[in-house]
């Protein structure tokens, strides 16, 4: 199994999308779906911003470029796989710092409306992660609208700047279970399936028998 940085981000964006979709349909259970939507959208945005930074230079992903460079130097003289094995204390940039580096170091234009939406998302995420969140119905409805806007404008931004990310998000979180495998295997063992194949192979109606 291998999970790339881009696939990681796409997976979180898709998870957020699935949770957001449920919000308008639920009578109960809004709280945990809202939590999932916030946490995974924040994570997905942060990761995909780091994908954009890494496309310019992997060093831009790290809080301390000096520490990253030292880890790269040590990596070349070792048998370890990556810089995190060389220095487990390496830190990558925060979501806010990633936005700033994309805009000011990579000269990528970011709309103020997107920045505001992402900052508010990050604020709510931090409350969920480190304290608590209380919203009355009016504030909840407003925040859900803002969450949907943040999702849409962020996806539009990444589809503009990361090749193939839209398709990767669409295909993310695909699952194929043992039960799916069993059911598919059973399908090929039924008389109905073989009858359909017989008609397809020979171009004959079902009442003609092969001797």
Any overview of this molecule?
The protein has helices spanning 5-23, 30-56, 65-76, 83-86, 95-104, 112-130, 137-161, 165-171, 178-187, 191-202. The chain has 211 residues and is mostly helical. The protein has a domain at 5-62 and 93-174: Up-down Bundle (Four Helix Bundle (Hemerythrin (Met), subunit A)), CATH 1.20.120. Helix 6 packs across helix 7. The longest helix has 27 residues, at 30-56. The protein starts with a helix and ends in a 9-residue tail after the last helix. The mean pLDDT is 91.
How are the secondary structure elements laid out?
Elements: H1 5-23, H2 30-56, H3 65-76, H4 83-86, H5 95-104, H6 112-130, H7 137-161, H8 165-171, H9 178-187, H10 191-202
Brief summary of the model shown:
This protein has a domain at 5-62 and 93-174: Four Helix Bundle (Hemerythrin (Met), subunit A).
Outline? globular
Proper CATH architecture of the domain at 5-62 and 93-174 = Up-down Bundle
Radius of gyration over all CA atoms, rounded: 24 Å
| SSE pattern, N- to C-terminal | HHHHHHHHHH
Task: Please give a handful of descriptors for the protein shown.
211 residues, Four Helix Bundle (Hemerythrin (Met), subunit A), 10 helices, 69% helix
